[in-house]
Write a sequence for this structure.
């Protein structure tokens, strides 16, 4: 695939390469009117909070009108704000409040599917003129789906519509029918809505499930042995690059905006194709290879073998994306989001070493090559919660999968999967933001839509901001460091000690400067010996331990100790 003429992508300086992104899940961020649901005015009330943390961009999860089967990822009207979240005027006020603080706003673009309540689907199921082919419709007896594809949320990817008396495809929930991107009218509709938001002055899009848009000709059966049956026919389907390039050229390319595509089921090499000219020219992709290290053999919801991961494998995977994505193009750095467990619970220790491990993870995210994405509450070291029954679970993916396991007799009761759900559920990230030690963590004056994590009296923003040693202050300090040190943004990444089981260490070098990052990613102390590394005159820039000495080499690092040094005594 050919790239843009002129400079290579890696040499171009852009604001989004220098930015730190903060992701907001609006339902759980802050409730301004006591109805228990976070809302847009609730975010506007907290723009100073975001500003003091130092972030440059907010990625706002969907706030569009939606029946909320999948918390807004099922859109009923792309040009309206969900009532519960406020009005378009509230949204405009948020945009200006952010822009007034030099914080940009990136919106979520969910165009693989709509809600089944979207006007297009309602017209399509009634075969209204011009809308017949907006979705994937197939004939067939009501008890026999047109092919064997499975939904990502469990069960068949097809549902029978009694109105049209045909089957329709939904890769996610049955209330999220897939748009038929082969239809040029559908592509035009998407371009129009993209332009509509760009004209409002937003600064980019995070593109939901974007590598799923193009489906194989004839929608053939998938290999029944695959983890997700059918996925080989729509992960990077035949026209995907063409569709995205067209969208880019006709809309996005005319604005100074950033794009990041969410890409499940992709290799790092396949992900890189989307960054190239001709491939879609996305600025960044979220690929998940580093987030499968703790899955069992049957994928994310394997009943066995989950929860264990080793640092050397993790380093290998991250290093590949540092080389293959950030090497020629750019990387999106993230460990958590609204679909994933809390990062300190998954990759750190949310018990005895919560502060230490949360700050180590922060150091990792903010010192690699790429654009860091922070998820709300991770700056406080928020942790997973626990679920005692399926009734306490809200996430349609978790409930769908558990129901499928029960239906298939893979398990007899919820009890058998409680541990797995407690580990994996997307709900962990969706408990309300913990603002203070007040009732409901200060998230709402009413009844929160989803239970607050019980640890809020200890873990909350008010307490964290008052404590210089807190996770919050560490994030703030690292964000500042990233803004000050060009090397952390543009420098080369070189892994040290690839086979070490405890240390994740690397250098970042740019022009004549080298920075060293040392992370003791374990619950045990360890001695850092790195033959050949010249540390004379090393200067400590940031550490999560007040006793970290200046010279990193040949000394004990405490559990989860994390430090950043300048190696050659400053820029020459
Ligand atoms: C993406 C979103 C997720 C949603 C799904 C369907 O994976 O991040 O929250 O459920 O797409 O839109
Ligand atoms: Ca509210």
């Amino acid at each position: 695939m050919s790239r843009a003429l002129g400079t290579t992508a890696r040499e171009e300086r852009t604001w989004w390469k220098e930015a730190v992104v903060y992701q907001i899940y609006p339902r759980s961020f802050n409730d301004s009117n006591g109805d228990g649901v976070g809302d847009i005015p609730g975010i506007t009330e907290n723009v100073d909070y975001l500003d003091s943390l130092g972030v440059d961009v907010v990625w706002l999860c969907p706030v569009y009108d939606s029946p909320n089967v999948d918390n807004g990822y099922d859109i009923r009207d792309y040009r309206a704000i969900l009532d519960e979240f406020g009005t378009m005027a509230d949204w405009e006020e948020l945009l200006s409040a952010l822009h007034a603080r030099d914080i940009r706003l990136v919106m979520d673009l969910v165009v693989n599917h709509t809600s089944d309540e979207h006007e297009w689907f309602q017209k399509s199921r009634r075969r209204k003129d011009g809308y017949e082919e907006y979705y994937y419709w197939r004939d067939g007896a009501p008890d026999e789906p047109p092919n064997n594809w499975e939904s990502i949320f469990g069960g068949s990817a097809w549902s029978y519509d009694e109105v049209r008396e045909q089957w329709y495809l939904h890769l996610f929930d049955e209330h999220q029918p897939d748009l038929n991107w082969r239809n040029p009218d559908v592509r035009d509709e998407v371009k129009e809505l993209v332009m509509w938001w760009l004209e409002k002055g937003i600064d980019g899009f995070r593109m939901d499930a974007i590598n799923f848009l193009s489906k194989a000709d004839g929608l053939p059966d998938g290999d029944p042995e695959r983890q997700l049956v059918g996925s080989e026919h729509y992960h990077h389907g035949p026209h995907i690059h063409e569709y995205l390039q067209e969208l880019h050229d006709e809309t996005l390319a005319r604005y100074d905006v950033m794009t990041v595509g969410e890409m499940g089921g992709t290799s790092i090499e396949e992900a890189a194709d989307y960054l190239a000219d001709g491939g879609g020219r996305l600025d960044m992709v979220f690929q998940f290879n580093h987030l499968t290290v703790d899955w069992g053999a049957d994928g994310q919801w394997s009943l066995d073998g989950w929860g264990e991961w080793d640092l050397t494998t993790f380093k290998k995977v991250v290093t590949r994306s540092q080389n293959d994505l950030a090497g020629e193009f750019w990387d999106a750095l993230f460990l958590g989001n609204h679909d994933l467990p809390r990062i300190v619970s998954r990759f750190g220790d949310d018990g005895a070493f919560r502060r230490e491990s949360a700050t180590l993870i922060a150091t990792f995210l903010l010192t690699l090559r790429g654009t860091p994405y922070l998820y709300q509450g991770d700056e406080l070291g928020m942790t997973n919660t626990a679920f005692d029954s399926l009734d306490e679970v809200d996430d349609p993916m978790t409930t769908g999968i558990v129901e499928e396991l029960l239906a298939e007799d893979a398990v007899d009761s919820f009890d058998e999967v409680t541990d797995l759900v407690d580990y994996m559920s997307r709900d962990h990230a969706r408990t309300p933001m913990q603002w203070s030690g007040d009732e409901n963590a200060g998230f709402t004056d009413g009844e929160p839509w989803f239970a607050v994590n019980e640890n809020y009296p200890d873990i909350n923003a008010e307490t964290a901001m008052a404590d210089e040693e807190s996770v919050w202050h560490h994030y703030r300090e690292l964000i500042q460091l990233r803004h000050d040190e060009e090397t952390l943004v543009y420098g080369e990444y070189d892994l040290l000690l690839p086979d070490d089981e405890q240390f994740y260490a690397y250098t970042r070098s740019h022009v004549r400067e080298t920075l060293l990052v040392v992370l003791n990613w374990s619950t045990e102390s360890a001695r850092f010996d790195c033959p050949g590394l010249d540390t004379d005159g090393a200067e400590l820039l940031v550490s999560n331990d007040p006793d970290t000495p200046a010279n990193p080499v040949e000394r004990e690092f405490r559990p989860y100790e994390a430090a950043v040094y300048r190696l050659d005594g400053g820029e020459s």
The mean pLDDT is 95. The first helix runs from residue 40 to 44. The two ends are 39 Å apart (CA to CA). The chain has three domains: 15-112+184-384+469-476, 113-178, 489-568.
